[in-house]
């Protein structure tokens, strides 16, 4: 167990809908990272928050947004969902603000299926 | 568990053999590289990293080799064990400036037969 908790584990929704994925970082970690992993594109970095503020932005679509709350948990909002958004969404956390971080721990992911 | 290994290159080895997993990277500006292991149903785990000023780095049972000339990275696992069965992928990132955003390879599925 990495200490990073993601909910829900599985989510099935229809095209055009909006969903929210939740991540609770390890105790004491200030950074939260979001990644998308699809079969055809592998792992892609989406966005990082550090202590409530956006730190780095990767290949995140405009239909997607994220935030980190004062208690340091984070939510990734995906709207106007398309079939191609079906993927595993991972959250990771770390104590530092570095974007690429060997000490980041990953959650088990949320499997999103858009039908 | 969930599988991310579908449609990936696969390497099958016998327990006790050495495994070599390869990764070609694309960005000449990348100067920092990481190997990750991802078991079925789990998130990626850091294995080993290497900076571009090195050609080789060794960890416990793992060695990473970097060939900047041909933009190639390899991960060698000695005495492969069934617990090493997973998807392995590399990540590249420029550390010296500009975008720090890492780029990840799609990975190779390693299957270790007892």
Unreliable segments of 5+ consecutive residues of chain B:
1-5
What count of helical segments of chain A does DSSP give?
Answer: 0
Strand tally of chain B is 10
What are the low-pLDDT stretches of chain A, counting only 5+ consecutive residues below 50? none
Q: Provide a count of the helices of chain B.
A: 0
Classify the beta-strand content of chain B into a percent band: over 45%
- The N- to C-terminal Cα distance of chain A equals 31 Å
How much of the residues of chain A is beta strand, in percent?
Answer: over 45%
Helix/strand structural class of chain B: mainly beta
Average pLDDT taken over every residue of chain A: 94
Structural class of chain A: mainly beta
N-end to C-end Cα span of chain B: 21 Å
Write the H/E string of chain B, N to C: EEEEEEEEEE
Shape descriptor of chain B reads globular
Helix content of chain A: under 10%
Overall radius of gyration of chain A = 13 Å
Anisotropy-based shape of chain A: globular
- What is the H-and-E element order of chain A? EEEEEEEEEEE
Main sheet specs of chain B: 6 strands, mixed
Largest sheet of chain A: 7 strands, mixed
What is the mean predicted local confidence, pLDDT of chain B? 88
């Amino acid at each position: 167990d990495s200490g990073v908790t993601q909910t829900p584990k599985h989510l099935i929704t229809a095209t055009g809908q909006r969903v929210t994925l939740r991540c609770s970082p390890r105790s004491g970690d200030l950074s939260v990272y979001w990644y998308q992993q699809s079969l055809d594109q592998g792992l892609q970095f989406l966005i990082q928050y550090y202590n409530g503020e956006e730190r780095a932005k990767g290949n995140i679509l405009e239909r997607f947004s994220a935030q980190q709350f004062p208690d340091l948990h984070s939510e990734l909002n995906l709207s106007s969902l398309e079939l191609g958004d079906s993927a595993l969404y991972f959250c990771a956390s770390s104590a530092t603000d570095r974007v690429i971080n060997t000490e980041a721990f990953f959650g088990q992911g949320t499997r999103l299926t858009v039908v | 568990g969930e599988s991310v290994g579908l449609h990936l290159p696969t390497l099958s080895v016998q327990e006790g053999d050495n495994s070599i997993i390869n990764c070609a990277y694309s960005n000449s500006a990348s100067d920092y590289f990481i190997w990750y292991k991802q078991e079925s149903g789990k998130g990626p785990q850091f294995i080993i990293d290497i900076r571009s000023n090195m050609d080789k780095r060794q960890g416990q049972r793992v060695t990473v080799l970097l060939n900047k000339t041909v933009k190639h990275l390899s991960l060698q696992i000695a005495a492969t064990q069934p617990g090493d069965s997973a998807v392995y992928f590399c990540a590249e990132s420029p550390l010296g400036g500009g975008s720090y955003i890492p780029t990840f390879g799609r990975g190779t599925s390693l299957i270790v037969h007892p």
